[in-house]
Amino acid sequence: MDRHHGAAAPAPPAIQILSAEKTYPDGTHALQPVDLTIEEGEFVTLLGPSGCGKSTLLKMIAGLLEPSDGRLLLWRRPVTELQNSANKLAFVFQSPTLMPWASVRSNVRLPLELVGTPRAEADARVAEALKLVGLGKFAGALPRSLSGGMQMRVSIARGLVTQPQLLLMDEPFGALDEITRHKLDTDLLALWAAKKLTVVFVTHSIHEAVFLSTRVVMMAARPGRVVEEVVIDEPFPRTPDFMVTPQFSRYAKQLQDSLLRASADTDEEVAS
Amino acid sequence: MSSKVLPLMQQPRVQRIVYPGLVAVVLLAVWQGLVSGLELPPYLVPSPLLMVKTLVTDWLALGSALLVTVRITLLAFVVATVAGVLISFLFVQNKLIETALFPYAVLLQVTPIVAVAPLIIIWVKNPTASMVVCASLVALFPIISNTTLGLRSIDPDLQSYFRLNRATRWQTLTRLRIPSALPYFFGGLRISSGLALIGAVVAEFVAGTGGTGAGLAYQILQAGFQLNIPRMFAALLLISLTGVALFAAMAWLTRRALGAWHASETSHD
A237-245 — which CB contacts under 8 Å span 24+ positions? Predict the structure, then answer.
């Protein structure tokens, strides 16, 4: 599975999800047991309708939510035991989640300050991260003076500034217009390739999932569960032209069908 | 910033001063006209001119009374702010603490200070201290409720972000909770500054009947006994002006504090 970054050594899988499930105290089954292994360097998308537990799963990977049963391992260790896990994984939320009172620079510097990085080094890394997302000129601006897409870029820069190995993204571009989203998708792929990141990306857009991923994990709702895994075996770098190829349509159709089948099953269960 | 310069009278900043000013001029003129025209005696309604004249002639008594009242107001305002902020921090440490104590903060707020003031004045020997206590009790609640609300009003995702990055309790407090709370806190300050003045005047009234204190309220009482109505009006005017000045100071402070993030951060580039 290492065809993308060619790390031949027996590197531990970045993420192992072992029968992790989530049931809330009121009995709501947010997520049925999931088994999933994600190798270093993969770009995995969790795709599904709202209520399928994809965000729940992502938050469990980040350690923001505890599974009610089962285990999650990052590099073979529980996320809570990871030394400096803050530096190894970065989480990008659906909204930019910036501090409105602080400049772009201070926002991006925050994760470095929280772990006590010396100021000079932090400033250099912030400048680099901002350049990476194309916002070098906006370091002194306040978030509210930026567009939604630019705020999201700041949020990504804040994720990248700690030089994480694992990037977890919870529908990061869901609130943006389509043109901006395509642009950010393309930029994200370039970053993923350049930084040899492992990305877990949550989305409800089939097209975004096919465009970005090395593998799509299809999920369904009521109850939240994984229904299918589809490897998108297409070369990188991918350009927007990829979206008008027959292969792209075939993958999209395959995912669409599997989603319809999954919801049809659920409807029958409800009906019977 | 728009590059076009508006004519003076169309600038909002000028309008905010000029238009209320015009209203004041008209009102004062009507007042003066009515008093002169109807030949109202000064012991019923003094004319604005007489009021100002009294202010000047009686400045020795009124000015020192103003100082006393302002001092009590400011002391009470500081006490209320410090105590209110400390109590808010206590409240947000633990939901149970807030649940247990918040009703008493409300109790403090809804009990009329006029009813409690005599007790406090008996209990606290030092007259200034007793009046400061009264006035701070009046000013305390908005600080507590606003600051508590502010400290709790945090973007939940931002809070998750801090947790993900293993932020300590202290880091979360100083870098997230306090900045998030500042706009609410300043809102509370603005309300409380006015309440501190009201509390100070009420306390002076109550204490004044007991024979202590020489603040503006005491001047009003004395002037009332002597039917020195122009002096009453002059003292009243000073109280109103003090309130306006306090409000303006708080508005300025809010702009300074909340706008400073803006200025200090954007001036970098």
Answer: A237/A189, A237/A190, A237/A193, A238/A186, A238/A189, A238/A211, A239/A186, A240/A182, A240/A186, A242/A211, A243/A207, A243/A211
